[in-house]
């Protein structure tokens, strides 16, 4: 049986850890520094990502959370040093907005490969009372590289992107990827989503690392999504229930 996680090295000290056995195709990113490492998100929770980071890292690992949706926090309970934006922290403290059974169903129905040893009844939404908060502009210093928090609400209230200015790397979570961008359920805000895409479009980005699907995302996709949102805004369509808008390699679901 093949390993659940697919690991790809992006450069000397950066890895993407992907879950292609599930339709979400979630990506987590491991950034190694000279003094500590950062793991951006911990995946779906079908398999424990800690066994991958233990294999690659000898330094302590800090987990940064793009947002507290179930498909990004699955292995949070395996780590001790965890940060999330204050506006999403309630979901990590036991107030997740969906019932456990609904999440279990989404995990199981999205499976496209047989996960080794996964028991749906043993799955629980992680509760992390010790998670710490981070805010817009905070910088995590890894020794020889720095990661800046960019608060980008809309998909969730506390959604954040992470930016490495020195490399031009932007880790975009569920704000920018090729696929259906969701701003259609109660905890989302399409107006904020629009403003957040505009905010990251002003950064100097050479590489985009998305939270889902195709890893080949040109920086120009940020501007395309920004312009699509701006045109929906101009047409007065940024309200929930407004519709699903198709732009080829991405869709906006409001
Ligand atoms: Zn999400
Ligand atoms: Zn997601």
Characterization of this structure:
The protein is an alpha/beta fold and 254 residues long. It has helices spanning 50-56, 89-92, 100-109, 190-201, 220-234, and strands at 6-11, 14-18, 27-32, 37-40, 61-64, 82-85, 132-134, 139-141, 146-151, 160-164, 169-173, 179-182, 207-210, 244-246, 250-253. α4 packs antiparallel against α5. The mean pLDDT is 96. The site of one zinc ion has 4 residues, from loops.
Residue fraction in strands: 25-35%
User: Which overall shape is indicated by the principal axes computed on the Cα atoms?
Assistant: globular
Mean pLDDT comes to: 96
CATH architecture of the domain at 6-176 and 208-213: 4-Layer Sandwich
- Separation of termini? 39 Å
Query: What is the oligomer described by this structure?
Result: single chain
| Number of DSSP-assigned strands | 15
Strand order of the largest sheet: 1-2-3-4-5-6-7
The set of bound ligands, ions and cofactors reads: zinc ion
In the CATH scheme, the class of the domain at 6-176 and 208-213 would be: Alpha Beta
Give the low-confidence spans.
none
Number of helices, where a helix is a run of at least 4 consecutive DSSP H or I residues: 5
């Amino acid at each position: 049986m093949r390993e659940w996680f697919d690991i790809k090295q992006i450069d000397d000290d950066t890895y993407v850890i992907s879950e292609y056995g599930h339709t979400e195709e979630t990506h987590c990113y491991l950034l190694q520094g000279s003094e500590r490492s950062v793991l951006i998100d911990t995946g779906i929770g079908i398999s424990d990502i800690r066994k991958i980071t233990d294999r690659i890292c000898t330094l302590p690992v800090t987990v940064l959370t793009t947002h507290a949706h179930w498909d990004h926090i699955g292995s949070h309970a395996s780590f001790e040093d965890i940060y999330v934006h204050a506006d999403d922290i309630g979901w990590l403290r036991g107030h997740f907005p969906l019932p456990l059974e609904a999440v279990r169903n989404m995990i199981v129905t999205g499976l496209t490969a047989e996960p080794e040893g996964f028991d749906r009844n043993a799955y629980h939404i992680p509760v992390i009372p010790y998670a710490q908060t981070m805010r817009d502009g905070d910088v995590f210093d890894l020794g020889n590289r720095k990661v800046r928090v960019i608060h980008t609400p809309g998909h969730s209230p506390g959604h954040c992107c992470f930016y490495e200015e020195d490399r031009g790397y932007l880790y975009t979570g569920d704000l920018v990827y090729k696929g259906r961008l969701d701003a259609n359920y109660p905890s989302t805000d399409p107006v904020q989503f629009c403003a957040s895409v505009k905010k990251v479009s002003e950064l100097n980005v050479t590489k985009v690392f998305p939270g889902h699907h195709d890893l080949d995302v040109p920086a120009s996709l940020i501007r395309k999504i920004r312009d699509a949102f701006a045109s929906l805004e101009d047409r007065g369509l940024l309200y929930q229930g407004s519709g699903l808008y198709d732009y080829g390699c991405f869709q906006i679901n409001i």
